[in-house]
Amino acid sequence: MPLQSLDIIRRSATSLPEPEVRGAYTGQVAKLIDTTKCIGCKACQVACMEWNDLRDEIGTCSGHYDNPHDLSEASWTLMRFAEYENPKGDLEWLIRKDGCMHCEDPGCLKACPSPGAIVQYANGIVDFQEENCIGCGYCVSGCPFDVPRISKKDKKAYKCTLCSDRVAVGLEPACVKACPTGAIVFGTKEDMKEHAEERIVDLKSRGFDQAGLYDPAGVSGTHVMYVLHHADQPQLYSDLPDNPHISPTVRLWKGVTKPLALFAIFATAAAGFLHYIGVGPNESDEDDEEAARRELEKAP
Amino acid sequence: MSSRTGRNIQRYAATTRINHWIVAISFVLLALSGLSLFHPAFFWLTNLFGGGPWTRILHPFIGVGMVAAFALLAREMWQDNTWQPRDSIWLRKIKDVINNREENLPEVGRYNAGQKLLFFAMVACLIVLFVSGIVIWRVYFSSLFSVRLIRISSLLHAFCAFVLICAIIIHIYAAIWVKGSIRAMTRGWVSPGWAWKHHRAWFREVTKGVHSK
Predict the structure, then answer these.
(1) What span, in angstroms and rounded, lies between the C-alpha atoms of A12 and A111?
(2) Which CATH number is B34's domain given?
(3) CB contact, 8 Å: B169 with chain A?
(4) B163 in contact with A at a CB cutoff of 8 Å?
(5) Looking at the structure, do residues A199 and A229 belong to the same domain, yes or no?
(6) In this predicted model, what pLDDT tens digit does every residue of A196-227 receive, in sequence order?
(7) pLDDT in tens, B161-193
């Protein structure tokens, strides 16, 4: 968790420009996950555990292949297995490697109230800086993909870092390194889109008419993309959102509400001050005491 | 409830005053810690509470304390805050209120219409703040609720806190504006002249059948 990085383009709860407004020339990275090549071996999960030194608790079998059941503070990536019966009546096993999508417009970063707890690097990676995390969980409500998890042990937020530490020194993420079928590849965002295009052409020639790239525009694209056999129905892949975007509620809460509310609070206080100066206090004087005394004497 | 102590009139009993100040101090702590997490311009206020994580830990507990103390206060004051026809007249003459022309206003009971509105604004805000606060209390409760509900609760929590802060600013200013009010909540008593001028109907009620010495 390096505190000093000149590669930051965006920082949570910060309104001043970051160093990279001067220009970022090396381009953006992306991880491409080809669900059509995935065999569900979970080597990526193991590589993630190993590189990031994570050990989730041993769980129980819940009747399907997902293991562990869900993302957690110690499971930053997870193969989700979905059984799909296609219109022809054949079974398709749709396996999706779930984890942070590294949105170009990250909802977690927008929701975070703690300056610098969430940053986005010039290469597009969205990273949590746990030393600045206060554990409020706003990132969880900001995320359109339900990815961040708050640790029960230290109450801080964790998720896939896209191996920002490896990428920073020119290595590919650990999951990419471990994938035996080449279903996960890593490179510049442009290269990954080109590679995906080739894959889609190949898939279409094999009868997957709706094959396509998942790089959702609602969050301005993502730095983790999928090649899907059924790009028209992303929800088939264990509820991958159709059109992910930052919720309007979160936008309102974290957008115009903030300056407007502060302005109104200051205006209320200022109105009081001006009233005191302009109209002045309301005092009861000797006459009122006298009137009260007379009233009491009048009483039977 | 109200009784005369010497020449002066008791407006708030010691228990009411202590309870009021528990609520007031809780409110200040909640407003400071809440604003620090609402707008980054105020994040530095987290230092008053021992840093960001401590602010996040303390805020909801102080909130529960405030709601409990306020519930007792509200139960005690509810009866005197029920709306009456004369309150509507008072509100229509708000210009006379603002310009200190009390002689044009109907006689006021224990509380005027402005105080009653503030009272019910506080009741409504605190109910919403309490419920939405439970939903967004990540450590203990958020896992029980859908992300949609948590988002709506976050927005509602911020909105009601904003309304409450503005309402309390008005409340504090009114106490500075109408001289003698602060003493009523610190020492407990007001002068007969104060009661005569600002709350005449209440003055008549509490002095009924009592002869001046």
Answers:
(1) 8
(2) 1.20.950.20
(3) yes
(4) no
(5) yes
(6) 999 999 999 999 999 999 999 999 999 999 99
(7) 999 999 999 999 999 999 999 999 999 999 999
